[in-house]
Amino acid sequence: MIGKLTGTLLEKNPPQVLVDCHGVGYEVQVPMSTFYNLPGLGDKISLLTHFIVREDAQLLYGFATPQERQTFRELIKVSGVGPRMALSLLSGMGIDDLVQAIALQEVARLVKVPGIGKKTAERLLLELKGKLGDAVVGTAGAQVKSDAQSDILQALLALGYSDKEAAISLKALPADVGVSDGIKLALKALAK
Questions:
Q1: What are the boundaries of the region Domain III (predicted)?
Q2: Rounded CA gap, 48 and 64, in Å?
Q3: What is the mean pLDDT of residues 62-77?
């Protein structure tokens, strides 16, 4: 019903914002990835939205990009994952990281997000396998290109690098690099 809001940003109370649209104030729940990129109070804002009507509430969720909104919609289709948990996932890891974790079937990366237990993480991996990458068209670097790159990524994560650092260093590697050479090159890149 409500697909987009454009108005003036009146309040920012994580994870909620208040947007004034011609005299009507809409309370909108947003993931932290959107929240951190919001303009200052009193500035114009435009959010893509997802409207949920329940018996006891009408809830509006806002997103900065179409990819965030589409990922949110795919997440809430998973049984046992509601809007609050979907926002937590989008706040806890970027879309690229989420797509990569699902493609590589990595339970450990999903469990790091607050509120996501092992069983929920396994259900997400099972139900979203092959769906999320297609749903989030235009997400760069979401798919790992080879087994060697998967091994390199696992090695970097085991060494304590964050998902984001490991993914960035992986993108800089040649496509046909071997595991040992790839790890060396990635560590050199991360040391800079």
A1: 144-192
A2: 6
A3: 94
Tell me whether strands 24-29 and 44-53 are parallel, antiparallel or unpaired.
unpaired
Six token digits for residue 8: 């003036």
Q: How many helices (H) and strands (E) does the chain have?
A: 10, 5
Distance CA 40, CA 159 (A): 38
Name the maximum alpha-carbon separation found in the chain: 60
Task: Say yes or no to pLDDT of 42 above 80.
Answer: yes
Q: How far apart are CA 152 and CA 85, in angstroms?
A: 30
148 or 55, which is more confident: 55
Burial of 95 (0-12, 13-18, 19+ CB in 10 A): buried
Instruction: Report the alpha-carbon distance of residue 100 to residue 122 in Å, rounded.
Output: 15
